[in-house]
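Attaching the record inline, Q. Sequence:
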Amino acid sequence: MHYSTISILAIILNQIINRGALKYIGMRSTDPKNAAKAAVIRYNHFLLAADCYFISDIAWGFLYEHHTSDRLFPIMYSDTIFYFFFMFLSMLTWIRYIVAYLDKKGRKSKTLLYCAWMMFTLGLVNLMVNRFYPFIFSFNEQHEYITEPGRHIAFIFQIGLYLVTSVYVLHLSGKAFGGERIKYVAVGLSCLAMGVFTTLQ
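Structure, as predicted:
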């Protein structure tokens, strides 16, 4: 129960701050004529991915308290898969939102998107392989969770992507003025904060 407390608080706070987060489920964000709407849709996609991540984390906390149960173990193992899947998806949807919010069509923005998609794809492949060759996580005979090297590698890549994005956006802020500069600084500091909190995690 104690493990799940932070995610419970996080999802409650997320819903309070971002009411109506499910408004744009199923809507595409590829309309080039309406960049502002595309950014809002992608932000809601990120919020949904983050909420699913929190839910899987909450469930994992409750399930792990009974990890010795053979009957609950398949559910706990599946929830662990979902935990990592939604973690990777949150990273991808966040970067997609940043690119849409900044409304930059240049090579650097495309490279950022390609890197995010590549990391997401590699994460999915590793999760599928993990069942046969544990690389991200495993469980021993007592169903105790064991962290494998792939988990640390995944976190390092995520942290690196957040920090690179932060540096890129803060660099853009140096060339902007007024409200646009404030927007860039806010996004850059948000990416930096996500990198820092991922490091602490």
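The chain has a mean pLDDT of 84. The first helix runs from residue 5 to 17.

More tomorrow.
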